[in-house]
């Protein structure tokens, strides 16, 4: 199968190189219609149903780079006194649906750039038309193409493109929901999960674009969070929930997470039971620890208690299978506690008490001692930077 993919890619890349040369030659000669036809022929390579996600991405990126020449030509027409809107309408006559959509997105990006119409109207039109692509792989990559082309063209508070930041938030959330739906259609079995992981970044690009909006603030983030977390919970898909929550944690600023920590932890409690919540907590707590190490950081007083109460809910019958991960979580939490208030030993006691409770839920009832002199014991185990030894009953 790997050799087949290599053959597909090699043959397609050769055709793409030839097509790109012919397209540029036509555009340089002023033959725009002919250049568009060559671009359309290149886009046919993305219709191959036998391409794996990794192979599809290779061809996609090559086409993405080549179509920049076509977009630049569209923009140059405006400088020559001609309307780009006419081109936006004309490329919709392309025969193939997939090819038509990519050409529309390319022309649409130029249409927004020259500001003949409000950006919001073009983006709404492109997202509405995108609904015709219901093949998960093709739909995901096309919508990702849109996100990349519109990277700096979303209506924002800087006023460069007509519209409001609220329009951009609404449209990005709409696209995120649709891309997540297509992503889930790829399946949740073990082999399917590997395939889905290869295209996860396509879905996450929506969250990246949301966080990059200049008009995004803590207040705005708090307003969109119910819808964002609601979408994550409602999909009830462990792969999606794991990735989306991790993306939200990684992409948005630490101050946003501190201001909305209660909502975040409530969402953790509502996720599918296959979601590794402890891993998400570790990522979040470690981020906040690094943030708290900055002397100018403002850490709300209730943050420790919120984390502590939620972590206590994880002490259940499942802890026997996840004991090591729970201890890693406690180490992260301990590091956070010492960072925000080094002299508060009561918080340290709370964390250690939870570690003891977790130990008591272990079926073999062994005792783990965290000791400094254990470092010289050949039977000790190194975990998270501390020494652990088993003590006989």
Can you tell me about this structure?
The chain has 393 residues and is mainly α. It contains 18 helices and three strands. The protein has a three-stranded antiparallel beta sheet, with no helix packed on it. The longest helix has 27 residues, at 2-28. It is elongated and about 75 Å long.
In short, what is this structure?
67% of the residues lie in helices and 3% in strands. It is mainly α. Strand 2 and strand 3 form a beta hairpin.
Amount of beta strand: under 5%
Average residue pLDDT: 89
Rounded to the nearest angstrom, the distance between the terminal CA atoms is 55 Å
Q: Write down how many β-strands occur, each being a DSSP E stretch of 2 or more residues.
A: 3
Q: Regions with pLDDT < 50 over 5+ consecutive residues?
A: 368-393
- Rg from alpha-carbon coordinates: 26 Å
Derived structural class: mainly alpha
> Helix tally?
18
Helix content: 55-70%
What strand line-up does the widest sheet have? 1-3-2
Silhouette: elongated
Sketch the major β-sheet: 3 strands, antiparallel
Question: What is the H-and-E element order?
Answer: HHHHHHHHHHHHHHHHHHEEE
Quick tags:
393 residues, three-stranded antiparallel β-sheet, elongated, disordered C terminus
What is the topology?
Layout: H1 2-28, H2 32-43, H3 53-79, H4 84-90, H5 97-113, H6 119-129, H7 136-149, H8 165-184, H9 190-198, H10 200-212, H11 218-235, H12 238-251, H13 254-259, H14 261-269, H15 277-292, H16 303-313, H17 323-340, H18 345-360, E1 367-370, E2 381-383, E3 386-391
Antiparallel strand pairs: 1-3, 2-3
């Amino acid at each position: 199968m790997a050799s087949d993919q290599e053959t597909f890619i090699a043959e397609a890349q050769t055709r793409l190189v030839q097509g790109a040369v012919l397209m540029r030659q036509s555009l340089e000669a002023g033959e725009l219609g002919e250049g568009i036809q060559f671009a359309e022929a290149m886009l046919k390579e993305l219709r191959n149903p036998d391409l794996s996600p990794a192979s599809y991405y290779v061809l996609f990126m090559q086409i993405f780079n080549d179509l920049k020449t076509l977009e630049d030509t569209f923009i140059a027409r405006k400088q020559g006194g001609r309307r780009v809107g006419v081109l936006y309408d004309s490329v919709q006559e392309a025969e193939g649906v997939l090819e038509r959509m990519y050409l529309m997105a390319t022309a649409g990006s130029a249409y927004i750039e020259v500001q003949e119409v409000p950006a919001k109207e073009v983006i709404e039109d492109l997202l509405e038309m995108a609904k015709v692509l219901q093949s998960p792989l093709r739909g995901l990559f096309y919508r990702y193409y849109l996100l990349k082309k519109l990277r700096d063209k979303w209506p924002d508070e800087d006023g460069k493109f007509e519209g409001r930041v609220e329009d951009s938030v609404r449209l990005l959330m709409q696209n995120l929901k649709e891309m997540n739906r297509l992503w889930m259609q790829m399946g949740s079995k073990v082999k399917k999960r590997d395939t889905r992981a290869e295209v996860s970044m396509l879905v996450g690009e929506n969250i990246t674009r949301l966080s990059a909006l200049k008009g995004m603030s803590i207040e705005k983030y708090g307003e969109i969070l119910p819808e964002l977390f609601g979408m994550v919970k409602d999909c009830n898909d462990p792969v999606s929930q794991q990735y989306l929550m991790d993306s939200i944690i990684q992409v948005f600023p630490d101050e946003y997470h501190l201001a909305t920590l209660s909502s975040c932890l409530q969402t953790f409690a509502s996720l599918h039971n296959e979601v590794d919540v402890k891993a998400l907590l570790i990522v979040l707590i470690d981020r906040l620890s690094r943030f708290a190490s900055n002397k100018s950081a403002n850490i709300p007083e209730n943050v420790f208690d919120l984390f502590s109460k939620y972590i206590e809910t994880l002490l259940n019958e499942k802890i026997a299978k996840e004991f090591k991960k729970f201890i890693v979580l406690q180490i992260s939490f301990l590091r956070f506690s010492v960072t925000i208030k080094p002299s508060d030993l009561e918080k340290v006691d709370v964390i250690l008490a939870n570690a003891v409770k977790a130990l008591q839920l272990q079926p073999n009832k062994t005792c783990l001692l965290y000791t400094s002199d254990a470092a010289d014991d050949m039977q000790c185990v190194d975990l998270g930077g501390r020494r652990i030894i088993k003590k006989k009953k």
